[in-house]
Write a structure and sequence with these properties.
The chain is built from two helices and 27 strands. With 394 residues, it is mostly beta strands.
Length: 394
């Protein structure tokens, strides 16, 4: 039989051992604190980025800890207002918040971030000590270099019948339609076309179509496609479109027209006029094309390419033009004609280019022709359109 003194000694040793290993350690019963990441959409007006701080269990004693913001790509004083202080949970509380003021700004720019750090816990332990505040900058102000070729405002023997200078705050839906969807558009394209201001907006006198890499409705990219179908349709004349283009692997910007009877006769019998297409990997080259239905039912194509000698089509604005009469079509860049087609060139099949057509402006991502983007493709990619003008003979 062990003596009482020996039993007392054994209990004391076990108590000390358990304490060293954290068993029955009062600190193990303290609530744990976590802070969560958050995101805010930045606009013209100031807003706040709210971080939630949570306890694993209700506080039985007053719990406190320090917090402080630190810069990432977002800078204090410029993008947000730095914050620091002490956060105190009263008995029974499980969640508090930290509000960080974010300055208003309509500039569209890359996503920015900053962090909030927790420290110096009292009557608690810290489980997650840092959270990221993400600022989404989807404003509709996006300045760009406007230099480049400009076409005349008038031509002898012609008068202006329609134009859009894109000087309003929003796209004029009395003249334009949004086409939406992500079904590949007959070309195995990869984007989902939306009508969101993230993908199509007006800024500083330009229409901007922006392609993004993001998950949306089952697609991995978004962009926009607008048309004048049923609203602004034309037969013959001179058409000038001043634009600056995205150039990167997998990008496919286009300024083009389809015959207005497409809903009844289908494509290619309706006719297609590609005033400008650019395949992103060929940054210095654009292609002008005519498509129609041949006698055997297949697609007919008449086209040519035009290349810049030094810079590429993303660096300055260029004017893409169509000179269209009853029996001929000419496509040019900066008044240099590189596609000349007559009715005789399209004699095999149904000649469609003597009927009304409507405009389509879009930026496709991927597809049969350009192929997919690769690791060199940086998003977002943007097409800027300064104006579209339609002149017809007096």
């Amino acid at each position: 039989m062990k003596s009482p003194k020996l039993l007392t000694l054994v209990v004391a040793i076990l108590t000390i051992s358990c304490s060293k290993n954290g068993v029955n350690n009062p600190k193990s019963d303290l609530p744990q604190v976590s802070i969560s990441n958050t995101t805010v959409n930045r606009g013209n007006a100031a807003t706040v980025c709210r971080f939630y701080v949570d306890l694993s269990t209700e506080a039985t004693d007053q719990v406190s800890l320090h917090y402080a913001t630190s810069d990432g790509s977002a800078k204090s004083g410029q993008d947000y207002t730095a914050q620091s202080g002490v956060l105190t949970f009263k008995t029974g509380e499980k969640e508090l918040s930290i509000d960080v003021p974010v300055k208003g700004d309509s500039l569209r720019q890359s996503v920015q971030d900053f962090t909030v750090q927790l420290s110096n816990p009292q009557n608690c332990t810290i489980d997650v000590n840092q959270a990221v505040g993400t600022i989404i900058n989807d404003g509709t102000y996006l300045p760009t270099d406007t230099t480049g070729y400009e076409s005349p405002a008038s031509y002898s023997g012609y008068h202006l019948v329609w134009s859009d200078e894109f000087n309003e705050k929003q796209l004029n839906q009395n003249e334009w339609n949004y086409e939406t969807g992500g079904n590949g558009w007959g070309n195995n394209e990869l984007e989902y076309y939306t009508s969101r201001p993230q993908n199509v907006f007006l800024s500083s006198g330009n229409l901007i179509i922006e392609a993004r890499k993001e998950n949306y409705s089952g697609n991995y990219y978004t962009s926009a496609r607008i048309t004048t179908q049923g609203k602004e349709e034309f037969t013959y004349g001179r058409i000038d479109i001043r634009a600056k283009l995205p150039v990167a692997a997998g990008m496919w910007p286009a300024l083009w027209m389809l015959g207005s009877n497409i809903s009844t006769v289908g494509w290619p019998e309706c006719g297609e006029t590609d005033i400008m297409e650019l395949i992103g990997k060929n940054a210095k080259q654009v292609i002008g094309s005519l498509h129609w239905k041949k006698s055997d039912g297949t697609e007919g194509t008449f086209n040519n390419s035009y290349s810049l000698t030094s810079e590429d089509f993303s660096q300055h604005f260029h004017v893409f033009s169509l000179l269209w009469s009853k029996d001929s079509l000419q496509i040019s860049v900066d008044s240099v004609t590189y596609v000349k087609a007559s009715r005789q060139d399209i004699s095999n099949g149904i000649y469609p280019f003597d009927k009304p057509s409507f405009f389509i402006f879009n930026v496709a991502v991927g597809g049969n022709w350009p192929g997919p983007p690769d690791e060199s493709t940086q998003f977002p990619q943007r097409m800027f359109v300064d104006y579209v003008r339609v002149f017809q003979k007096n």
